[in-house]
Every structure is written in C-alpha cells, then in structure tokens.
Amino acid sequence: MTNTHKARVALIQMCSGQNVQENIYQTCQFVTEAAKAGAEYILTPENTSLMELRTKALFAAIETEDNNSVLSAFSDLAKRLSIWLHIGSIPVKLSEEKVANRSYVISPKGDIVTNYDKIHMFDVDLPGGEKYRESKNYVAGQVPKCVDLPWGKLGLTICYDLRFPYLYRMLAHAGAHMISVPSAFTQQTGKAHWEILLRARAIETGCFIFAAAQGGRHENGRETYGNTMIVSPWGEIIANMGRDPGWICAHIDLQEVSQAREKIPSLQHDRRI
Fold it and tell me: pLDDT tens for residues 122-137?
C-alpha cells in the first residue's frame, strides 16, 4: 500500500441502452455527482457505453481502441474531475468479426493505466427461455490483471468471472487488497446468487469487493438485477442500492484487509493440490 490507506469510493449503477452517446451522457452525470461528493475512485458497470445483443447493431456502434471516442470522453472526464475513473467495461472492436469486453482504469491525469478483458464467457440457457452466447461475438481474455492505486492494489474482474473463485484467489495472492466486479447480472441469476457470491469472494480473499451493476429493463428487453454494492473484507455489506440508476459512495479503510486476513489466514494455508 502507498501513501494512505483510506479512500472514498463510489460505484455507478446504470440502465444502459442502445444509444452510445446517451449512455455516455448519463454516466458522466453520475460520475460528476459522485466526484462532487468527494469520491476519489469511481467504478461504472459492465457494458457502460452500450447494451446491445444484436450482432449487426453491435458492430455498427463500436470502435477499435485507437482513437476511441468513448475512451476519449471518459479520459477527459477523469482529468477534469481529477479522479481515478474505472470504466467497468465497454465493447471494443478487435476485428470485423470479434469484440473484447474490456475494462479500463484511468488516472486523474486522464491516462489509461491498465485494461482487462473479461476471461469467462457467459454462454448459458436459463430456465424460462433466456439464452446468452457471449462467445458468439466476444473473445475471452487470457490474462488476470491487478493495478496499483494510491491506496492499495486493485484486482480486475468482470461479471461472470464472479463465479470462478480460483481467479479471485489468484488476484489475492498477487497482492490485491480490492477487487472490482462491474456486472450486468440477469434478474433471475442476480436474485438467486449475486449477494451470496460477492460476500463469499470478499471472505475468501480478505479483499474489499466493488460491484457496480446494471439494473432495470433495458431497451433491448433484457432485465438486469442491479443491487450495486460495496463489501468489506469480512463479508459485510458497507453500501448497496436497489435497481434504479444512480450511485453509492462509502469510505473504505484498507487496514481492514490485513485485519481480516490476520483473523482468518487462509491465504497462507493454501495447498497447491
């Protein structure tokens, strides 16, 4: 950990639609409000800039990483507000056939300090007829990522990654004090598992968990669970919200990480079987 162990953290909840500019505008409004309330690190959800399932419409609306207008807007915002802005994910065109579901951490100077591509693809058939084939358009990431922030090390994950505890354990062993989980959980799976999984990942790793979510009924008909929340290393919910768009903010103390790990030193007891 560097400099200080306390930070004011904000998480943005969205109901992103199919118009990129409208989504950017709404995000910027919420981020600005949270920054004015004193937030130093602000996380947005998965699919911040676009919630689009139709392949043709998806590719028509997105850009490559070079000269990306979405990234430029958010980099300018981070610099103007002098905050650490973490864009949970945006779709980034890799080719004419494939996309990355990519998260970006932007410094108060407006510089992208790291990015992370979602590793686990959500390919499922849910009871009730809902079907998702993320791998149809998206390329899975291959590399777990951590990044140093002024208060400690942040591990990066996205949504469906939440169901794979080995990734979170790996991030904790890599030095993470906090782990981000920008998400767009479905209403059905969110109601059943969202809170349980977030609290379990916090307890297993002794990390703060930052879970910014999509919530509500989207233009494309998809319904997401919302319930954005911040969870302590002891598994306690520090702040949370319902399904409406908005934001939450809380003070965190990174000393709680070492305190939780001293009480339950399970990271020291891992056996590589």
Answer: 888 877 777 778 888 9
DSSP conformation letters of 14-45: B---S-HHHHHHHHHHHHHHHHHTT-SEEE--
| 3-class DSSP assignment, residue 260 | helix
Counting DSSP H helices and E strands in the chain, the numbers are 7, 16
Report the distance separating Cα 195 and Cα 86, nearest Å. 22
Range of lowest pLDDT (16-20, 90-94, 131-135, 263-267): 131-135
Q: How far apart are CA 105 and CA 42, in angstroms?
A: 10
With CA atoms as reference, report the closest residue to 137 among 100, 174, 162.
100
Q: Determine how many CB atoms are found less than 10 A away from the CB of residue 237.
A: 15
DSSP assignment of 85-131, as one string? Answer: EEEEEEEEE-SSS-EEEEEEEE-TTS-EEEEEE--S--EEE-TTS-E
The CA distance from 241 to 13, in Å, is: 9
Q: Which active-site residues does the annotation give?
A: 46, 118, 159
DSSP string for residues in 184-210 = --BHHHIIIIIHHHHHHHHHHHT-EEE
The amino acid present at 210, given as its one-letter code, is F
pTM for the structure as a whole:
0.96
3-class state of residue 273 by DSSP: coil
DSSP 8-state assignment for residue 140: P
112-117 vs 123-125, strand pairing mode: unpaired
Distance CA 75, CA 10 (A): 17
Based on its alpha-carbon atoms, the radius of gyration of the chain, rounded to whole angstroms, reads: 17
Residue bearing tokens 């400690």: 152
> What single DSSP character describes residue 48?
S
